[in-house]
Amino acid sequence: MSAPRGLPRGLLAGLAGIALLALVTWLLPQLVSNYLVRVVIVMCINAVLVASMGLANGFTGVFSLGHVGFVAVGAYVSGILSLSAHAKGAYLPDLPHWLAGITLGFLPSTLVAGLVCVALAFLVGAPLMRLSGYFVAVATLGFLIIVNVVLINAVDFTRGARTFTGVPLETSLPWAVGWLAVAVAVIARVVYSPVGRRYRAVREDTIAAQAIGLEVLPVRLSAFMLGAFFAGVGGSLYGHYLGSFSPAAFYLAYTFTLISMLVIGGMQSLTGALVGVVAVSVASEVLRNLERGLDLGIFTVPPLYGASQVVLGFILILVMIFRPSGIMGDRELTLGPLVKPRQEGPGREIKR
Amino acid sequence: MNPGLYIAQQVINAISLGSLYALVAIGLSMVFGILRMTNFAHGDMMMVGAFGTLLLGFAGLPFWLAALGGIAIGALAGVIVERVAYRPVRGAPDVSLLLTSLAVTYILENLGILIFSSSPRNFPLPDWMNVALQFYDGQLTFTQINVVTVVATAVSLGFLGWFVTRTNAGIGMRAAAEDLQAAQLVGLDVDRLIVVAFAIASAFAGLAGVLWAAQSGIVEPHMGFTPLLKAFVAAIIGGFGSIAGALIGGFVLGALEIFIVAFLPSAVSPYRDAIVFALLIAFLLFRPNGLLNRSQEIKL
Amino acid sequence: MTRTALHRLPLALAAGLLVSTAGFASTASAADTIKIGAPFNVTGALSSLDAPALNGAKLKVKEINDAGGVLGKQLELEIYDTKTDPTVIASVASQLVSQDVPVGMGFTDSDSVLALGPIFQQAGIPFVTPGATSPKLPDQIGDMIFLACFGDNVQAAAGDEYLMNEAKAKKVFLLRDNSTEYTTLLAKYFDEAFTHDGGRVIARDDYKSGDKTFTAQITKLKALSEKPDALYVSAMPDDIGLIVKQMRQAGVTEPIVGGDGYDTPLLIQVGGKAADGVVYSTHAFMATDSTPAIQKFYKDYKAAYGMEPENAFAALGYDTVGLIADAIKRAGAADPKKIRDALAATQGYKGITGSISYPEGTRVPAKTVAMIGVKNDKLYLADEVTPKWIAKP
Q1: Residue C26 above 50 pLDDT?
Q2: Which fold is adopted by the domain A9-322?
Q3: Of A202, B220, C12, C37, which one is least surrounded by beta carbons within 10 A?
Q4: What are the chain A neighbours of C118 within 8 Å (beta carbons)?
């Protein structure tokens, strides 16, 4: 754990991390098939989303069901920005002039998408973050549904329920891994800093936090906005991975997938979020291939489409029964000095 | 068309839709009241009840008997789910409960697809239920299904009212909803009360499922999802956890949905769900305990 | 605990990936089969449309194999359930590419085809969709993508001509489901064609697939000061029976016209008597008293799956396999490039949903549109149309 004295630990770890990531992104496509590379890219995108979702949900205790709403906004904003002028003319003929003329690269449009989400999160969060518990969950669910309805009806910008397509396929493995590294580094930095302690103070006991002079609203709002930034970034990655999407892709089914990843991994731990993404993704890929039927030589198992979801459901229930706080609970895996975990006492596991 | 009749027609439409929302919302609210649990699988009991009715009908039972059987099957499914999936996680964090119920939804809906296929099936009705009643030269119409829906809702609400005020189990349930720990301390058998609550809630969902299928004419594995979402809104409007609140919330939501489409310009009707949810958020902010202002600490 | 969890993780990952790659090994053994990649959304929101298409495809594959296969080899569908999830679709697409399937087929909606398309396009593997009826689709992706069905602009124009010429309707009320691409696009094309031919859409309204009561829209329709001659309702299969029933119960008597979403037994099962006076455009007249080929399809489908074809996609799935088999035969080898060229050169392939030809340079077939009417709980062939003016895709 201890780095050589005299060297700036952060810099060393950062360089080592970058070297490692570069190696992985270079090596992986040489070793495995394009299919597995794709699975890994999707995992990275989901990891960005789940980690940022965990920021608000796990660390400040504000259970938001609206995260996917920001993902949708991120995907559409970045998609509109990065669409070529030709594609804009073909697919979005009614776009306002000032937008029709702009074509940004992948990185700038992703950043803009993230910033738009931050602004939106401020507008939405300023009132909603006053609520707590179930009520914030319901209100943010309402946000998700409103985003969906607006996307379907803002035909000039989104093509409505029709597929939004023509987005350049830019999300390669290096981009996905790179953004994941940035997201994890930033979120880890924030969570395990004095600011992060405030987050957890607010989560553990709102009234006590107020009593020691913490203003709850700004604390929650800042977490919500940071989470929204990475949701927008993740949305942009998602959009530039598939190249085409429609409002239906960013709705409840995706919300539930992300939540199960978050809760399975452990809401109150950053590495938990990552572990959850990997566990759920691997399980569903494996089950999806198994449900197509097995030829075991002696007897064959017929294909049972839908069986993978049933089995996955049972696994979820078993995890909830035996590890109600997820695989990691509020523990962290130490990934080097970049993340400085500090045990803040046992997490409150039982509320009622 | 006579404007008075136009309004009367829309009110009838609203009551019919509101009854269905109320039936689903009440069960959702009952379970929430006791366990503080948002039961996403509640909508699937509608699917179970409707498919149960369909199968019993195929087996040759008359419609009303098949419907009662379907409702009983719905209730049974609710009790089984509680025993197998929810009881072991009772006391876990709220999100874990929520996720468990989501997992149950995954399982039930995909089992539905595996068993019945995903194609919607026709839900056959006795002919008299399809008869349309017309008044004022057809300016005011509704069908026998609407009448059956409203009557069935009223009867089951009457039963529920009697149950929670006059029976020991019902009073116990209310006590448990007030304070689960206290109910346990004074010696109430909480496990049994929760089973009863799930049985009743799921029976209500089963009934709603049968009525929903009767109105829409089809049964399919995903049928419980939309009504569940609506019931969720209805329960919040009324004050989550309160039975009377859920009832009122159901009717308010039904009326909102119908009136937005009926009385606002056509350009607005695609935004119906957005308007409903915007109102819901406003409700949460300004009247967080619902229409029946039951005090509950939810704001900062 | 944290340490062991970390150590177990790569192990679990490796095991998982091994199992998923083992999937390839088990199927790669047979060299005497020609594989057709078949991703379909068998579960999830689109399953009620995709599952019948897959069933139809399976039926045709069995029929062809029983008759000796193609080029002396048996056909084999490489089926994957893509779960109505775009990321799963993209993963499955690359899985199929790495299995070296020479050709693929699947899906009934553009979202799914667009998620898969670029990957097949890049790999140079042709893909035929039985049911995604957006006419823009092939040009959006590239020269590897084919439609086995006509575009929505064609059937919308057929509906328009039927209304104009047969029903003598000049004023229509347009109701559409605003939540899907198919229904919004069909309504848009109809609007364009009807207006082009001198008709007028006097009012329009929206609903959302899954709504179970249309009473508000209906009451509003009845209160219109100007009465429409007919209604054009752009709806999905699961909703149309109910819409028709509620309309008729409320005393709306005008003809109701729509697209191939109506082509499902539910229209009459749910609509009952109310379905009288409904006319819709679809791919072929599917009924027991139709042509021998369709009768055979009907009988075999019922024998195999215990129910009548659920919607038009069943027949389209069946024809798509026939179309691909025909192309493989003409290509003379299970080679992607040759199959693509053979597909593009298809002239007059006789399917049960009509004759399929790809005019020079297009990958959307020119097909006639069948207009089907309902009378006394029975379907009849109202008209067969080759529309004159078709809205631009």
Answers
A1: no
A2: ABC transporter involved in vitamin B12 uptake, BtuC (1.10.3470)
A3: C12
A4: 169, 243
From A65, A311, B42, select the one nearest A319 (Cα to Cα). A311
**Segment 199-218 of chain A within 8 Å of chain B by CB:** 206, 210, 216-217
pLDDT at A342 over 90: no
Q: What is the ipTM of this complex?
A: 0.85
B17 interfacial to chain C (CB closer than 8 Å): yes
The answer to whether residue C336 scores a pLDDT higher than 50 is yes
Check if C14 contacts A (Cβ < 8 Å): no
- All chains having 3 or more CB pairs closer than 8 angstroms to chain A: B, C
Contact residues on chain C for B13, CB-CB shorter than 8 A = 213, 215-216, 219
Looking at CA atoms only, how far is residue B146 from chain C in angstroms?
11
Contact B29, B243 (CB under 8 A): yes
C-alpha B158/C-alpha A308 separation (Å) is 43
Question: Based on the number of CB atoms within 10 Å of its own CB, is C194 exposed (0-12), middle (13-18) or buried (19 or more)?
Answer: buried
For residue C3, what pLDDT is reported?
42
Domain that holds residue B131: 3-286
CA distance B115 to A246: 30
d(CA B171, CA B182): 14
**CATH number for the domain formed by residue range(s) C31-150+293-362:** 3.40.50.2300
CB–CB of A163 and C98 under 8 A? no
d(CA B56, CA B63): 9
Tokens of B257: 């949905």
CB–CB of B114 and A307 under 8 A?
yes
Q: For residue range B5-59, list pLDDT tens digits in order.
A: 888 888 998 999 999 999 999 999 998 888 888 899 999 999 999 999 999 999 9
Whether residue B256 contacts residue B276, with contact meaning beta carbons closer than 8 Å, is answered with yes
Number of neighbours of residue A189 by Cβ within 10 angstroms: 15
- State the DSSP H helix or E strand holding residue B140, giving kind and residue range, or none if neither: strand B140-143
Q: Is A275–C5 a contact, with Cβ atoms under 8 angstroms apart? A: yes
| Of A278-287, A341-350, B209-218, C317-326, the least confident | A341-350
Q: Are C56 and C37 in contact (CB under 8 A)?
A: no
Residue C146 DSSP code = E
Is the model's pLDDT at C368 over the cut of 90?
no
Nearest-by-Cβ selection for B266 from C203, C223, C242: C203
CATH number where B48 lies: 1.10.3470
B300 inside domain: no
* B137 CB neighbour count, 10 Å cutoff: 10
For A153, name the nearest residue in chain C, comparing CA atoms only.
Answer: C178
CATH superfamily, with its number, for domain C152-282+370-385: Response regulator (3.40.50.2300)
Residue A296: per-residue pLDDT? 67
Comparing CA positions, the residue from A298, A3, A38, A67 lying closest to residue A176 is A38
Question: Which one-letter DSSP state was computed for residue B70?
Answer: H
Q: Compare CB distances from B122 to C51, C237, C270 and report the shortest one's residue.
A: C270
- Which of the pair, B27 or A58, is modelled with greater confidence? B27
Angle, helix B3-35 to helix B225-238, in steps of 10 degrees: 90
- Which of C43, C86, C118 has its CB closest to that of A309? C43
What's the average model confidence in pLDDT over C150-159? 94
Considering the domain boundaries, does residue B48 fall inside one? yes
